[in-house]
Every structure is written in C-alpha cells, then in structure tokens.
Write the structure tokens for this entry.
Amino acid sequence: MLNRRTVLATSAATALAATLPATAQSRKDAMVLGMTLEPTGLDPTASAAASIAEVTLYSIYETLTKIQPDGRVVPLLAEKWDVSPDLKTYTFQLRRDAKFHNGEPFNAQAVKFSFERAGGEKSTNKDKRTFANIGVQVVDDYTVVLLNKEIDPDLPFLLGQATAIIVEPKSADTNAARPVGTGPYQLDAYNKGASLSLKKWPAYRNPAAAKLSRISFRFISDPAAQAASLLAGDVDAFPRIATRVVAQFKANPQFQVILAGSRAKTILAINHRRKPLDDVRVRRAILSAIDRKTVVDGAADGFGTPIGSHYVPGAPGFVDTTGVNPFNLDKAKQLMAEAGIKTPLELTMTLPPPPYARQGGEVITAQLAKIGIAVKTQNVEWAQWLSGTYGGGFNYDLSIVSHVEPFDLGNYAKPEYYWGYNSKAFSALYDKVMATGNAAERNKLLGEAQRLLATDAANGFLYQPEFPTIAKRNVRGLWTALPIFANDLGALYWA
C-alpha cells in the first residue's frame, strides 16, 4: 500500500515529467509502438496477415517502389522506370548501392527470383495471380523488364506493397523466422506473444534513412490495456488503436490523436459454399437486415463510412451502391420467405480478435435475430482465422474482417477465394477491366463491377473504416493517411 509521502513523490515526478522541455525528449534514440495483432510470421509473401507488413515493410524488406501516405508512388530499390504505350511492359533501372543484410548483392537476378517465386506453383503469396501474369527478363545486373499479360496501370503501386518485397534467394525459405532484406532495420529480438524489436542496420546505404537506433513493438489486443499502455508510458505510439479508447485522449495535452483515412473495406464475409448462403435471396435478406450506420457506431465507434460494395469513396471509378441493399426489415423477411427458409435459421459467425470484429459481431447478431437468423458467435485467434476461415479450411458461415488492400476487387474473380463467390458474369467483367487502358472507360467498368457485386450480395459490405493513431505529443513521422497498412519506421523520430 502506498503511503502519503510515496503518493506525493510520485505526483511530483509525474508533474516534472510532464513539464520536461522537448529538447530533453529529442535525444531519445528508441521508440515503442503498440500493435493490436501479433504477426503470424515475418515473411509477408507467405501469409495474408496485414500485421506482417506493419512490422517488416520498408523496415526489414524493401520493394522496387515505395507508396507514400498520399498514395503517390516513388522509387525505392528501383531508381526509375519506363512504361510501354500499351501499359504491359515496364523497364526498371535498379539501384547499385543496395545489398542484403547477409552481404549478398541486390541485383536484377534477385528481382527475377523474388517475382517468379511469388507467382510460382508453390507460392502462398496472396497476390500470386498478379505475379503469375508477369514475365521477368534480366537485361543486365541493374536492368529488369517486367512483361505483364494484363494491362494494369496500378502495377507500380502494387510493386510497393509487402507481397512484392525483394528477397535474397538463399535466405528466402527462412524469412518467416530469420528475415533478411535490404532495409534499414534488422530483427533484434522476438518474444512471441509479447513483443518484437528491430535494430538499425549499420551497413544500410543511407544512414540517415533511419532516425532511431531501435524500434520495438508490443502486442496488445485488449482495448483497455492499449489505453493503459499509453498512459503508463510503456508505449509511445499506437497506430490503429481500438476506436473505443480514442475519446479519453482527445483532451489530454500529452498525446496527439491522428485520424487516418484508408482504402480498407470492413465486410461481413459470407461463405457461398454453405447452404442456404448460396441463395442470393438469403444473402440479400442478410444485407437488408443490417443497418450499416448502427454497425459503424457499434463496431467502430462512428469512425467509418457505410459502403454498398467492395469499394470505397476516393478510389478510381467509385460509385455509391449503398442503395442497392438498403436497411429494410420487411424486405429482409420477405426475401427469407421467398427463399423458403424456415426460421430460426442457425448460422455461426467466426470472429478474429480485432475489436471491430468482436464488437461488430454483437451488433449484427442482434440485427439478424430480428429476421429469424440465430447467430452463434465463435471467437478465434488470428492464426486460427487465417487457417480455418481464410486459408483453405473455409470452416465458417459468416465472418467480419477488414480487407485493407487498395486494389483487391479481383478477388471476386477467384472462385477458390475464401468466400467462394463464383460468377462468370463478374469474371468476364473484371477481365474487361484488366484489358482496358483508357482511364475513363476503365472507371466505367469498375462502376459496373461494383454494382454487380452489390446486386449479387456477394458479401455483407459494411463500411470504410477510419483508423485512429494515438501517440505522445512529440512523436513525429507517423502516417496521417493509410493507402496501405504499413508503419514507415524510418520516418519516425522525436521532436
């Protein structure tokens, strides 16, 4: 038990810490970041978990291009590139001063190996299709040509994502545990279930690219514990923190609150392989029973914009499809009756750990109960979700997850994808999208694709999330927008 003298001393120390000048803080050479989800490994080409990129992209591993917070694409391992008039041939001139952490040189052969591995038969890369369509030609050690079978004006952007990291051939198979890249940081220590730390790599080509000598991550899934870690000073910045804790920090002068827009889509995933979910009338009934505004409030504490398809405002070719399956309980009940569904219809909703999923599950379960759908929720850990729901098990009826990749509409052209949507009409339409170089025509086709997904009720399209970051007031370099899920660790510093 604390006595009065201890309390007074502690209060005085706290007050002194709060009034320290920024110059005292500026000499800090390390930073601790909080993360909601622990990565399932350290190789972003092996798993779809976005948490892997949050630790490794642009820090341990690098890509030919780099995506800026505003969505611009700039050179990274490539110094520059040229695109052919038909948008199918990309010629990259590579850096000559990059090397891998194990001393091996970075060159065109490493690019060829990385992309052919990503598109190969044994690949588990979530963008395998993209790389399988690319032929790689080595012109010389520092010139590589990519021959794309499809027209894809977004390819430079895609090559800046974590699935496009350049790996060193001899170390590629062990990257999940012992990552080797060309980036400014190396793995220092990994205490699974608790924390991970990176240390600055002294041989990096540009010593000024990493301003901190050490960056650590602490894995904290519980919202109350996330807030407590910041207030106690155990964590300096918490990107994508649980939305429910934001309010308590807004008026605290010791912290800054950053609200970052995204291209993410939070959806109620529907398994088309399960009856009666293969019936479009049942899927439309589910969507008609969902009040998206209530879901945004309950799952994301208001930090989100309702969507009606797998596309978000701000993306090229966006059209508003929220009116295709609007909230209408009478319509939902009518559709259930038309489909011959005897109620209660019992379904299981498998929920991964993020608070938006668990909170959203409660809201949607209550909404579906009003039309006779009895939902049993099943909470699983992230690794279980990836293996049982996403990665081939397909052992679920419904699930809630945020798809954070900006250009992932093409997943609906993959019948083998985890939700099992199989539409020849959509696949043909998406092929047209990929074969169209004219931007206006392409955007028109993208609008048609969005409407088709909404009409098919391919999934329960819920909202575009807005992700809050809370950090100490003198932390600098945090992204204020999220075109992709990444932490640009080299940009972080203390003011």
About this structure: The CA atoms of residues 3 and 125 lie 58 Å apart. The first helix runs from residue 4 to 18. The chain has a mean pLDDT of 92. The radius of gyration is 24 Å.
